[in-house]
């Protein structure tokens, strides 16, 4: 069963992005024109083979976090203007909180797999940093956008009703 908020499927229009950084002008309003956000957590898994060429065990490796954001040119210019050195890279390290807001009222109820809960998921892309600036445009473009890798240090998830001590990394281990 799909995840819903007040019987409405979670959708792009419900996403809210909130950056936190040492640069005051780099704020939530600046990211309103974002056209895409993505993140992924992946753990290396490798089969260990034995006699007969069949897998006998599994070995686990490092966890890798990736994320990206697609920004229109105007947003890129605003980030550069807010940066101490005039580049997107000059914003430095920042956290990006992604949460889902209830358009139909303030008392959102999340329904995951048929079980209602007041806990709305919040995902934090921690330790993000821009490592590039630039632009891509082609003839007949009606909107100039560019995808930027965010290079997160970690990705955390939590419910909005729990405190910061309840952060859980998205691959399942508690953070102490």
Describe the structure.
- The protein is mostly beta strands.
- The chain contains 1 helix and 12 strands.
- A 5-stranded antiparallel β-sheet has the order 3-6-9-11-12, with no helix packed on it. It has a 4-stranded antiparallel β-sheet with strand order 2-1-7-8, with no helix packed on it.
- It is globular.
- Mean pLDDT is 80; it is low at 111-118, 160-167 and 171-176.
Helix-strand topology string: EEEEEHEEEEEEE
| SS-based class | mainly beta
Q: Let me know the largest β-sheet.
A: 5 strands, antiparallel
Tell me the distance between the termini. 32 Å
Number of alpha- plus pi-helical segments: 1
Computed CA radius of gyration, to the nearest angstrom? 19 Å
Physical arrangement of strands within the biggest beta sheet = 3-6-9-11-12
Helical coverage, percent range: under 10%
Indicate the overall shape: globular
User: What's the average pLDDT?
Assistant: 80
Q: Into which percentage range does the β-strand content fall?
A: 35-45%
Spans of 5+ residues with little confidence (pLDDT < 50)? Answer: 111-118, 160-167, 171-176
Overall number of strands: 12
